[in-house]
Amino acid sequence: MNMDDMVLISVDDHLIEPPNMFDRHTPAKFKGRMPHIVQGPQGEDMWMIGAMPVPNIALNAVAGRRPEEYGFEPTGFAQLRKGTYDVHARIGDMNVNGQLAGLNFPSFVGVGGQTLEKVQDRELGLAIVRAWNDWHIDEWCGAYPGRFIPVGIVSNWDPIAAAEEVRRIAKKGCYAISFPPNPSLSKLPSLHNPIWDPLWKACSDTGVVVCLHIADASNAVPSIESPVDVMIANMPVSLYATATDLTFSPILRKFPDIRFALSEGGVGWIPHFLERIDYVHERHTWTNQDFGGMKPSELFKKHVYTCFIDDKVGIKVRHDAGLSKMTWECDYPHSDSTWPKAPETLWPSIKDIPAAEIDMITHLNAMKAFQFDPFKHIKKEDCTVGALRAQAGDVDLSFTDTKGKGVPPAEHSGPVTFGDVTGQLSKMIDVGAKT
């Protein structure tokens, strides 16, 4: 196998919802009340959910920006690469990257739907959930069969309604939902609370994978004075705590067919984690954990998928980490993404392992996890890196004009801290609220 022979399916990409996404999906009862775009005084576009502003954060959509202009400042659609919010342009960006397919997480509703937890009118919140899912499944993913793995959101505040939504979208061919990795951070019941059982049962019954995507930045940074580099470095391994919480919760033992994915979590740390949870279980029998004769590591490997962007250590320890559950991600259009050179970034790490294992990591494991078969729609020979790039045509890779915006601002000196970026974002949200 050579680099151009790879078939790349990313289990973690993102989209920026377009302004017209609710046009075809608003129930008559909620006409005029669904989220809509407003423009701030500096040209930034923000979603408004009632009186709550939700800005487009630049660091969530920096594809096409100069690296020195990456930042957290809210932006307008005019400053974003079109492929972030236009599905037709996204296909061009995927082709030029040699990427066959991707699972696209939400943005303004929260990567796990957390933004909608703040909607006071619960009936409206549920209508937004359903409308988002219908738009994503029918319009975004439906526009190009075989190119997108659909993922839904649920009503995190109502497990019964969430279970019903899982069953509804599964009938539409959507076999993934995005859920907060630590719901207690939103003052919701923890993963250990049986209140979630209807949701877990629905996922187990339908084969819907629960994606626990890194979400809460404050959980990855020690202090407000920490350089923002600390947060960025720690975000993936913040899922270490989630993985432990999940494994020692009753969920994996109570629902033997349920599956989770640690989205954007990396792989290199997994063997240490598995060794540690087994050590704890063996040494600390006083905690009354009963795994029915299994090791915690065995339970984790049975139920949980992992993923990585570029993880040379993870490839080296792939068998210890669990090769059958390893998947690849591009993370377009975020700042960690390897677009448009994902094949060139990945290939040096995997070129010396067996071709069958490359196929497992790059696409077969993802296809199995999400019940996704692109080859029903596209000939396999047209799905490789080389074949897709040959279709890319004249995709423009020139830098986006961002008017020099980004972090740090011109007057800033020294390392950018977590406080700098949260302060900047808070200021813009205040402006949006007044707008």
Describe the structure.
By secondary structure, the chain is an alpha/beta fold. Helices cover 35% and strands 11% of the residues. It has a five-stranded parallel beta sheet with strand order 7-8-9-10-11. It has a three-stranded parallel beta sheet with strand order 1-5-6. Strand 3 and strand 4 form a beta hairpin. Helix 5 (228-234) crosses helix 15. The longest helix has 20 residues, at 122-141. The protein is globular and about 60 Å long. It starts with 7 loop residues before the first strand and ends with a helix. The relative contact order is 0.18. The model has no long low-confidence stretch (mean pLDDT 92).
Keywords for this structure?
lyase; 435 residues; ACMSD; alpha/beta; 35% helix
